Amino acid sequence: MNARRLLYRLALAVIGLALTCAAADREHATPIRELVLAPQPGGSGQSVAQVERGRDLLILARSSAGNEMWLQVTVLAQPGTRQQEATGWAPAKLAIAMSSPNAADIIFGAAVDSEIEAEKPKGRRSAPDDAQRLYQRVAQFFPDTDSGREALWRAADIQWQLDRARGKKPIDETAMQNVIRKLPGTRYADLAAYALLENQLCGDWKGQAACPAQEAEIYERYAREHPRSPKAAEALYNAAWRTGVIADIYRVRNNKEQSEASHNRALALAQELANQFPQAEWKYRAETLIYKMQKNIPLYGTSE
Amino acid sequence: MALKQKAAILGAACLVLLLSAVPGHAAEKEHGTVIGDADIYVAPDFKAQRVGRATRGRDIFLIERSKIDNKDWAHVLATIQEGLLQPREISGWVDGRLVVTVSTPNADQIIYGEAVDSEHQQELRGGRQKADQDAMRLYYRLYEYFPGSPLAAESLWRAADLRWQLEKSGVFSRPSAREMDANSRSQIDDETMRELIKKFPGTRWAQLGAYDLLDNKICGDWKGEAKCPEKESDMYEHYAHEYPQSPKAPEALYNAAWRQAVLVDMYAKERGKADKARKKSLDIIQELTTKYTESDWRARGVQLRYLLEQNLPVYGQ
């Protein structure tokens, strides 16, 4: 009985391995338009499945029908999603295979298209998810190109924004950690590390100094660890602003000593920002912050 | 007689002095604005009657500054507008710390920083209401007070663009925006944009302004007719060639190429016209992809070329 079960498991493992090897050998593709899988080349018969832009397709066979090329594909399910796998035929012109000429640019262009569509007030509802998947495919199919690296970051960023908009707390860090792991030392890794800070922020401060103090520390540490990051100036500003807020909180509580210490620290951080990033927009926000602190204009309850 | 003459001369002198003192007094007033919403009181006292509120970026005249009970006060003349009421001029006292005038050190940078802050605030969920209007006024004040500042041109652009976007959303939300002809809808007021182009010609800010102005020329609903995409394609191509250094040039070229691709679909039953539009679109894409290799628009151009080559429809997708 045990031997039979063992044999059964072994057979399953062999089949799984065979499928994986086949998947590794076979070419991938992705649709740049929503398409319908047909049971046979030519598109006749009842549709098998509807496939969204950017889904990962595994090409099983190619055939021509009615003067057109068709691909037999399996739509792969993304791990950790409710996506269903399905197999059927799709018109080759809608599914861009990795080996197609200019495939990276075409898929990347379709992703940018969807991203722009997502920003329109009456844009296609699926556009943000489409953009995310299309970028993901560029990163997956062309990992060692500039487009692939940019796409890896953009896919992670869109996923992050979508999770936030959908109220997920904490936001799933997998995609961002992946950017850091795959692109160490790049601006993309710096941007991903900045995004991850969001999961460490308090919700409502409830007028307590503990939250802004913790957040100021997080932002300052980021600025020190990633001085060349496009987000370094913003992080320093966030640290300065929060430290200024702490000064307000202590002042309201008549804790003059701590208020003064925080006030001076905030001024020093804002000054550092203004000196270190003379070209950045944040420099001017730092100048305004310095002015407000010098004039004792309260920061808490005002814009960040 | 001599005494009368002396008195007359003295009187005339007094009159001249008095008359010259009036404009002199006005000139002494400093222009300025507030970098936080400032309640206006009849007297320098937070318990005094409140007569209005000066919101960020409002133009004010500083009459005098005063320190009372260790608090800074500013006596100002402000033009305020509350709700839908007509703007009115009122004078009163505001928290002096919020008043930044032309003589405040680094005033241009402080106003600019507050404007950026307001713009950022507008983008935050739960951010301050009408923060975009605060930003628009603050940017304009910077340009107005400091036209020679290195930040002036960008500030005027930002003010003009914020105003443009605000008016555009209004104009394009009206039923008349669905009319095909651009003249059938009210036009977006281009006064500030024209001022920008006139004051800072040849700059990237003027080029961006010129791109915004095209909004007043585009059709509403095309209603499936070819004349709109034809006209708009020409317009965008003309822009891209007139301002090849503009940050909007690749976008303009893409828009021109995309409209030609739409014409290919529209002329499905007129092969000659369809072929001409296809060639035109491909030529523009070629220009886009070779001239602007670093832009996202290049990748969109490559995608558009693929759609054309595969005879995939563009219009309505």
- Count all strands of chain B and give the number: 7
Low-pLDDT stretches of chain A are: 14-21
What is the tally of beta strands of chain A? 7
Helix coverage percent of chain A? 40-55%
In terms of DSSP E residues, the strand content of chain B is: 5-15%
Backbone shape of chain A: elongated
Largest sheet of chain B: 5 strands, antiparallel
Oligomer: heterodimer
> Which shape of chain B, going by the Cα principal axes?
elongated
Summed up, the helix count of chain B is 10
Domain module count of chain B? 3
Strand order of the largest sheet of chain A: 6-5-4-1-7
Order of helices and strands of chain B: HEEEEEEEHHHHHHHHH
Helix-and-strand structural type of chain B: alpha+beta
CATH top level class name of the largest domain in chain B: Mainly Alpha
Fraction of residues in H or I helices of chain B: 40-55%
Instruction: Catalogue the unreliable spans of chain B.
Output: 9-27
Which protein chains are joined by the largest interface, and how many residues does each one contribute?
A-B, 30 and 34 residues
- Radius of gyration computed on alpha carbons of chain A: 26 Å
Describe the protein:
The complex is a heterodimer of chains A (304) and B (317). Chain A has 304 residues and is α+β, with helices and mostly antiparallel strands. Chain A contains 10 helices and 7 strands. Chain A is 55% helix and 12% strand. Chain A is elongated, with a radius of gyration of 26 Å. The model of chain A is unreliable at 14-21 (pLDDT under 50). In chain B, helix 4 (152-171) packs antiparallel against helix 5 (191-199) and helix 5 (191-199) packs antiparallel against helix 6. Chain B is an alpha+beta fold and 317 residues long. In chain B, the strands form 2 sheets. Chain B has a 5-stranded antiparallel beta sheet. The chains are: A alpha+beta (304), B alpha+beta (317).
